[in-house]
Amino acid sequence: PDAGPHLNYGWGEPIRLRHLYTASKHGLFSCFLRIGADGRVDAAGSQSPQSLLEIRAVAVRTVAIKGVQSSRYLCMDEAGRLHGQLRYSTEDCSFEEEIRPDGYNVYKSKKHGISVSLSSPKQRQQFKGKDFLPLSHFLPMINTVPVESADFGEYGDYSQAFEPEVFSSPLETDSMDPFGITSKLSPVKSPSFQK
After folding, report:
1. CB atoms within 10 A of CB 83
2. What is the DSSP secondary structure assignment for residue 193, as one 8-state letter?
3. CA distance 68 to 185
4. Residue 18, SS3?
């Protein structure tokens, strides 16, 4: 029986290595969540070794997010501020993962009930009580950056089944083909078009 499309995208895997991409409402600003070696959580303009994250299931619909290069867990304090810490704390570093119909994910702190967001403190205040914060919907993306320097430990043989040249162009967020895949394909050859 068909288990569903989630298996094709690695959603059924207990551990995923991904970059979390987010963009503003009209796509004017886009970035990747990055956890620095100093514990700072911020936005990277493009995929980098610092934005490669290990997303691990810790309970049903609950994940821990860890920076591969920084070895720091994504955590949240009571004010909703994000930081990276070396030790995993179930209370501060566990996030409910909601996979939305549009393919984006929302990560909400189990303890504080606040969504992970790369928005500024000022933006958070402005959107308090609204449906969702800006820069809080994340698209988990496959890594396209060489990471020879990163130690994957038990995941050292992690292989990626993608064509690097397909993902080398900038992401077109307003396009029906954001990754430019159809432009890489040869034109359709159909007998009905040859008549």
Report:
1. 18
2. G
3. 33
4. strand
The three-state DSSP-derived secondary structure of 54-79 is EEEEEECCEEEEEECCCCCEEEECCC
pLDDT at 31 over 90: yes
Pick from 114, 119, 109, 96: which is nearest to 25 by CA?
119
CA-based end-to-end distance of the chain = 40
Cα angle 39-21-94, degrees, rounded to a multiple of 5: 50
Cα 119 from Cα 125, distance rounded (Å):
10
Q: Give the number of other CB atoms < 10 A from CB of residue 187.
A: 6
Give the model confidence (pLDDT) of 87-139 as tens digits.
Answer: 999 999 999 999 999 889 999 999 988 899 998 766 665 566 666 677 899 99
Half-sphere exposure of 194 (CA within 13 A, CB side): 4
Spell out the domains of the chain, with CATH numbers in brackets: 5-151 (2.80.10.50)
pTM for this one? 0.68
For 185-194, what is the mean pLDDT?
Answer: 44
Q: Is 163 helix (H, G, I), strand (E, B) or coil?
A: coil
Residues forming beta bridges with residue 53, ordered by sequence position: 18, 67
